[in-house]
Design a protein that fits this description.
4 strands; 177 residues; globular; four-stranded antiparallel beta sheet; alpha+beta
């Protein structure tokens, strides 16, 4: 599929909402980028809307994707984001697998590495429907099967009412005190 310059401009404008340099803001930029890439892909491949999250919710649906598909697509989207200059400070790694030999527990994820700390992060889009924010967490926590929606990862994986709620904003903090 080919994305238009207008598609990329919209993507960049949405990602620019989290322009801070904190790890939290940089993770939110990644989440926003994957979310927006999934929406763009769905625009050109409408059957992607049938990917509802976790395989049990979409049996026999055209467009259904398993975790391998999601890890592959997310990795591709990360490469697009890098190529357009929207992943500063991140290196893209190959997808990772956990529980490789457990047919009911095997799971794949896309992986990025924070170039400042060297920490590897899971970017897992399989737990949410196509066109939603992916889950992020340190890769080792993902391997250890921690839940990205529970503490201590719940804040970074929030599902906000507004895209602006994703980013750390010093002005917001000052007005709340």
């Amino acid at each position: 599929m080919v994305f238009t310059p207008d598609d990329m401009d919209l993507l960049k404008s949405r990602m620019s909402i989290c322009s801070g340099t904190s790890l939290d803001d940089r993770l939110q930029r990644v989440r926003i980028g994957i979310w927006q890439m999934e929406l763009l892909a769905q625009k050109y491949q409408p059957s992607l809307a049938n990917d509802r999250a976790i395989n049990a919710f979409e049996i026999a649906q055209n467009g259904r994707m398993d975790c391998v598909d999601n890890a592959s697509n997310t990795t591709t989207y990360l490469h697009v984001l890098r190529d357009i200059g929207e992943l500063p400070g991140w290196k893209i790694s190959s997808p990772e697998v956990r529980n490789r030999f457990n047919i009911h527990g095997v799971h794949w994820t896309a992986v990025i590495t924070d170039m400042e700390s060297g920490l590897h992060w899971s970017v897992d889009s399989w737990f949410r429907p196509n066109g939603h924010l992916p889950m992020v967490m340190p890769l080792q926590s993902w391997i250890d099967e921690k839940k990205a929606w529970e503490a201590p990862f719940a804040r970074v994986n929030a599902v906000p009412g507004s895209i602006h709620e994703l980013c750390y904003t010093p002005d917001l903090e000052l007005t709340e005190n």
